[in-house]
Amino acid sequence: MKVINLSENNSVLNHYIKEIRSVEIQQDSMRFRRNLERIGEIMAYEISKTMHYEVEDVKTPLGTAAINVMTNNLVISTILRAGLPFHQGFLNYFDRAENAFVSAYRKYKDALKFEIFIEYIASPDLTGKTLIITDPMLATGGSMELAYGALATKGTPAHIHVASVISSQYAIDYLKKHFQDTEITVWTAAIDPELDAHSYIIPGLGDAGDLAFGQKL
Question: Which of 62, 73, 124, 146 to pair with 26, CA 20 to 30 A apart?
Fold first, then answer.
């Protein structure tokens, strides 16, 4: 498994990460959603550099231009609900991609203990395609493991990209352990050092789903 941490190189991405973390700025839910979308667009651009390209001749008003065009069959998937704005950023750039959606939620046994459940999946055939799984917060890695397990029932992708805005070091280590034999690349905009007792990322940014769409019961 390969891990690419985009925060290791300075770019405009830093500005959007600052805004989604800031307790003042993140309270503007429309801006929070748009910043997740922007981060998705930047990450889609970076991932596009790893795709397969072939030369295509394009007729212009004055002649013919040879252009390298991407040939991967892409499927962009996300984990509901927090992943929707992030997913949209990828779809803005990979606008011909197919899409998949998985619901995953924590069911708490008490204040600290929980299990993760998958209740819904909608996906095209993934066989031989390039799968991008987007989830803004990669906290424990458990939701990602279960989401991929659900998606894997729809076929075996040629390659998997996991895209996260903020990851914990725990989740990175977890995925390295559980995806040893899988062709997977993890992309993240930040890796934070720890989790709190509720398995939220520290310093993180809080609950991405609530910040984007409002609090849930």
Answer: 146
Range of the domain at 199: 2-213
Distances (CA, A) of 156 to 31, 47, 97, 131, 141: 36, 20, 17, 9, 20
Which CATH number belongs to the domain containing residue 33 in this structure?
A: 3.40.50.2020
Distance of CA 23 to the CA centre of its chain: 22
How many structural domains is the chain composed of?
A: 1
Q: In this structure, what DSSP letter does residue 181 have?
A: T
pTM of the model: 0.91
Rounded to whole angstroms, the Cα distance separating 190 from 204 reads 9
Q: What is the dihedral of CA 196, 199, 203, 204, to 10 degrees?
A: -170
Lowest mean pLDDT segment, chosen from 9-13, 25-29, 108-112? 108-112
Distance (Å) of CA 182 to CA 31, 138, 154: 36, 18, 16
